[in-house]
């Protein structure tokens, strides 16, 4: 389970989240009792529906005085959503074109914003999304040291190919980021020297790059290839940066698996994450099954939300 | 002696007035050319580097001359600080601050306004079209401005001197 630094999260909200909201919504969230907003995991805006926040995995409506209610809240208008959307893109929709096609944006500070609306497609390919109707802001929280116990437990005899598995919202990326930081800086307690770590950060969630510069602490020996497709990025990094360890987020398809197997042949260790609840569920993913069949995964760590995000349920050692 | 000095003073001041009046024509042509140049740099910032507008404007401001230098820097700041809700407002806010230094006419400003509005489009194709239209229009506007300058620049210069002479002759 994670323990958060409240002051730091407050700072995050002031710096990254509040500037992209409109005044009405900002005020409502700011007024939540005792700075209660620091516990928010998601802010959901839907056209003509009440403002909603999720904390501790439960949804609440927020009214204009910052009260958390179950019945009703501050209604969010279409114009507000358009304005917020424009602010999030720095008024430059074109610079986010590729992200928008995938249905999300990454704003400064590395917070991911899911978007839905009317999809414009041409010849079966998504061109863009217009008439944005809902936004879901996921607050990225950095929890330094959250993976220390885990790292001590699984890497006491060297780094291994690792897969971190959990349903969404259980802290996969947070754990992965901290593992990257620890491996890169080295862990004295288990005599682990700092490794050259490279990160393929397709969705800018691990290092949370803004203008190419990591906004989160990913360690001293870490190189980040930002917004790069995973399969291409893996090969680029192997060729160009001679890493000891490569970290990637959310693998699944056969293409990812092939790229990982290629990279492993050059001697790097791979640390990755995947969506899933248990072993049976991840076996259904073709890419992961292939990796398991080819002995490309040594350890699987299962996370859950049982005692808050980041609860380690099970550590499975393969071979 | 005093008379001659006075007469010279009158002629000098009216010629200066004529010169200043014709300066507006020259400066407008220069500014229109500068604007074309900045739009070209801006298009590469947007279409190739895919930089967000505040970075694009700040980069362009480094390569162009006054008063566009200050204008673009101000727009960039407005966008960065998110001090306005739309792009056009950010432009207008900045333009009003440096209004005196611009010798652009109403049609030039209208063109600039439409262009800025087009910048909020979200696809590359739209941007290419927007740039093409703006640059083509600017070219024709510049041509007209150049014609006007050729016609009027000398006219106002001579008019200044001649007015001075006329006043002197009338007074003598």
TrEMBL record, chain A:
Pfam families, per the entry: Spore_III_AA
Domain AAA+ ATPase: 158-307
InterPro entries associated with the record: AAA+_ATPase, P-loop_NTPase, Spore_III_AA, Spore_III_AA_AAA+_ATPase
Keywords: ATP-binding, Nucleotide-binding
Highest taxon listed in the record's lineage: Bacteria
One term of GO molecular function: ATP binding
Gene3D superfamilies xref list: P-loop containing nucleotide triphosphate hydrolases
Annotated protein name in UniProt: Stage III sporulation protein AA
Organism in which the protein naturally occurs: Thermobrachium celere DSM 8682
From TrEMBL, chain B:
Sorted UniProt keywords: Coiled coil, Membrane, Transmembrane, Transmembrane helix
Positions in coiled-coil regions: 128-158
Pfam families named among the record's database cross-references: Spore_III_AB
TM region positions: 6-25, 155-171
InterPro entries for the chain: Spore_III_AB
Protein name: Stage III sporulation protein AB
């Amino acid at each position: 389970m994670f323990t958060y630094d409240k002051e730091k999260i407050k700072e995050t909200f002031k710096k990254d989240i509040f500037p992209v909201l409109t005044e009405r919504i900002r005020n409502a969230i700011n007024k939540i009792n005792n700075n209660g907003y620091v516990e928010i995991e998601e802010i959901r805006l839907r056209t003509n529906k009440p403002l909603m926040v999720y904390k501790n995995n439960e949804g609440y409506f927020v009214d204009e005085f910052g009260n958390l209610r179950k019945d009703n809240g501050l209604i969010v208008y279409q114009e507000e959503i358009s304005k917020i959307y424009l602010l999030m893109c720095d008024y430059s929709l074109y610079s986010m074109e590729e992200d928008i096609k995938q249905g999300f944006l990454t704003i400064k500070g590395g917070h991911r914003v899911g978007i839905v609306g009317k999809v414009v497609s041409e010849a079966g390919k998504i061109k863009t999304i217009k008439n944005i109707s809902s936004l879901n802001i996921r607050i990225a929280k950095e929890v330094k040291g959250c993976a220390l116990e885990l790292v001590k437990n699984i890497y006491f005899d060297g780094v291994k190919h690792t897969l971190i598995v959990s349903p969404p919202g259980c802290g996969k990326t947070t754990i992965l980021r901290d593992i990257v930081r620890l491996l890169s800086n080295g862990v004295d307690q288990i005599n682990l020297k700092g490794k050259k770590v490279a990160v393929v950060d397709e969705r800018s969630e691990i290092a949370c790059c803004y203008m190419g510069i990591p906004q989160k602490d990913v360690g001293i020996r870490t190189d980040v290839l930002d917004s790069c497709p995973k399969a291409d990025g893996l090969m680029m990094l192997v060729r160009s940066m001679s890493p000891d360890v490569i970290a990637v987020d959310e693998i699944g398809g056969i293409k990812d698996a092939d790229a990982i197997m290629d990279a492993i042949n050059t001697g790097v260790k791979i640390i990755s994450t995947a969506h899933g609840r248990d072993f049976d569920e991840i076996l259904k993913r073709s890419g992961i099954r292939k990796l398991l069949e080819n002995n490309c995964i040594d350890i699987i760590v299962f996370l859950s939300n049982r005692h808050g995000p980041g609860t380690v349920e099970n550590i499975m050692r393969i071979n | 002696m005093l008379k001659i000095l006075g007469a010279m003073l009158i002629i000098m001041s009216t010629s200066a007035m004529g010169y200043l009046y014709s300066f507006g024509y020259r400066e407008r042509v220069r500014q229109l050319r500068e604007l074309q140049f900045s739009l070209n740099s801006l298009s590469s910032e947007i279409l190739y580097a895919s930089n967000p507008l505040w970075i694009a404007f700040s980069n362009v401001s480094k390569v162009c001359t006054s008063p566009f230098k200050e204008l673009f820097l101000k727009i960039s700041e407005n966008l960065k600080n998110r001090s306005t809700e739309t792009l056009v407002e950010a432009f207008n806010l900045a333009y009003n601050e440096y209004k005196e230094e611009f010798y652009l006419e109403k049609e030039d400003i209208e063109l600039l306004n439409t262009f800025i509005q087009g910048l909020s489009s979200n696809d590359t194709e739209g941007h290419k079209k927007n740039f093409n239209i703006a640059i083509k229009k600017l070219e024709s506007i510049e041509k007209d401005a150049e014609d006007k300058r050729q016609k009027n620049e000398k006219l106002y210069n001579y008019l200044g001197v001649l007015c001075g002479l006329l006043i002197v002759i009338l007074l003598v």
